Amino acid sequence: MPVYEYKCPGCGNQFDLLRRMSQADEPVTCPSCNNGAQRVLSVFASFTTGSSGSPVPMAAAGPT
Ligand SMILES: [Zn+2]
C-alpha cells in the first residue's frame, strides 16, 4: 500500500497515512483536531505553499 501525505488546513498538522490507492482521495480526519485534512499531492513535493495560498518554489520561500 502506498503512503499518502495529508495536511490539515485547520491546525497545520501534517501526517502520513497508509491507504489503498482507491481510498487516497477519500476524506481523512486530522488526528490532532478532528477537522478534515487534505491530501498533499506528491507532485508538489518540491513546492511549498506561500502566504498567498499559491504554490511557490522552495528557493523563493526560504527564510526571510
Ligand atoms: Zn488539524
Structural class of the secondary elements? mainly beta
Q: How many H/I helical runs? A: 0
**Average pLDDT over all residues:** 80
Principal-axes geometry comes out as globular
Give the number of DSSP strands.
Answer: 6
Alpha-carbon Rg, integer: 13 Å
User: What is the percent of helical residues?
Assistant: under 10%
Major sheet: 4 strands, antiparallel
The low-pLDDT segments are none
Rounded to the nearest angstrom, the distance between the terminal CA atoms is 39 Å
Give the SSE string.
EEEEEE
Please characterize this protein's 3D structure:
With 64 residues, this protein is mainly β. It has a domain at 1-41. The protein is built from no helices and six strands. The strands form two sheets. It has a four-stranded antiparallel beta sheet with strand order 2-1-4-3, with no helix packed on it. A two-stranded antiparallel ribbon has the order 5-6. The mean pLDDT is 80. It binds zinc ion. Zinc ion is lined by residues 8, 10-11, 13, 30, 32-33, 35.
